[in-house]
Specification:
Number of strands: 9
Strand content: 35-45%
Strand order of the largest sheet: 6-5-4-3-8-9
Order of helices and strands: HHEEHEEEEHEEHE
Number of helices: 5
Distance between the termini: 77 Å
Helix content: 25-40%
Low-confidence stretches: 1-5, 11-32
Number of domains: 1
Radius of gyration: 22 Å
Shape: elongated
Length: 196
């Protein structure tokens, strides 16, 4: 009896030792269904202007994943960017305000997930792959060079949210009355200055 208990304890300790590795192997989408996190963001020179590069982390809430996988409705995610010039003598000036919309849908005939933005359409074999694409924002041009003044300090801000305004009306009502349909990040703010 004592040997069995000792053996069981040893197995339990081995499982607990493996737990961190198991958690790292679980996709991010399975870990964080409550909120979108802006993990990293930068504003970098790009094609005679400036582009946003960012990394998000999030997972779909069960009701959103279920609605998507049963091909009930596509899901829309909106990325918003703002550039603000602080002014001590008056209200801050919003220099740039723009957004980018992604449409995530499931194709039941091909069993693929599709992301569309503008004229770009990409297919993915799994939901995790599609979400992985959504979590990496690359080279989104947001600023022309003549918009910003060298030597001025600006405050850049970025956020992502699930856009409930794109849902059909009955779902919008549910989204208005239930937190189950809310998936968004806080604004991630950072300073930006052009020296040249």
């Amino acid at each position: 009896m004592i040997l069995l208990a000792h053996s069981t304890c040893r197995q339990l300790l081995q499982i607990l030792a493996l737990l961190p590795a198991l958690l790292l192997a679980v996709p991010v989408s399975a870990l964080a269904p409550d909120k979108i996190e802006v993990v990293q963001v930068s504003l970098d020179p790009f094609e005679d202007g400036w582009a946003v590069n960012a990394q998000f982390e999030f997972g779909l809430k069960p009701n959103l994943a279920e609605a998507l996988e049963h091909a009930l409705l596509p899901l829309y995610f909106e990325v918003e960017f703002e550039l603000i010039r602080p002014r001590w003598y008056w209200f801050d000036e919003k220099t740039v305000a723009t957004h980018l919309t992604y449409r995530l849908s499931y194709q039941p005939l091909t069993h693929e997930y599709r992301i569309s933005t503008g004229s770009l359409h990409l297919n993915f074999a799994s939901l995790n792959e599609a979400l992985g694409f959504l979590m990496r924002l690359r080279d989104w041009k947001v600023l022309e060079p003549n918009v910003i003044k060298p030597g001025e300090t600006y405050i850049a801000a970025l956020r992502m949210h699930f856009d409930t305004s794109q849902l059909p009306k009955p779902f919008q009502l549910n989204a208005f009355t239930s937190r189950e349909w809310v998936l968004e990040s806080d604004w991630k703010r950072f300073s930006f200055e052009v020296t040249r």
